[in-house]
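Board notes (copied after class):
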Amino acid sequence: MSDFDKPITALTPQRHRRAVARLVNEERAERGLAPLRYTSSLRVSARTWAVVMVRDSRFSHGSWSARVLRFPFILAGRPRGRDVGENLAWATGGLTTPREIVKDWMASPGHRANILRAKWQYGAVWSSPDAPLPGKQGDGVTVVHHFGGKR
């Protein structure tokens, strides 16, 4: 069984993140799009938001317009300008596999549009082995995928 089909309880968070990123890039490649290149500046913002959601037991994009202004990726791109996007997921048990996470994103028009947006050049995934709901933490995962591109 590949990492694509293992639940978060059978993987390290790093392996989970890598598998999600690979599956996203496979979806892009199938449609002739360039793979997303990893950048640590998007990893920082993805990790931060995953930690906040789990800590505060909430699952949302929050105040997106205010959050974006503090993204290291955005700050590093000034004054030329950069854009960012975000996909979120959480699951428990067998639904925590990287394949299930990406399959659910691809089944959602908004998430799918983010994955397949040609302007995105960069990406970073953060998987937290915890769920944003009390009592679901034991076998849960919260996943944040940040996308970035130049204007």
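Comment from the instructor: The two ends are 40 Å apart (CA to CA). The CA atoms of residues 16 and 99 lie 10 Å apart.
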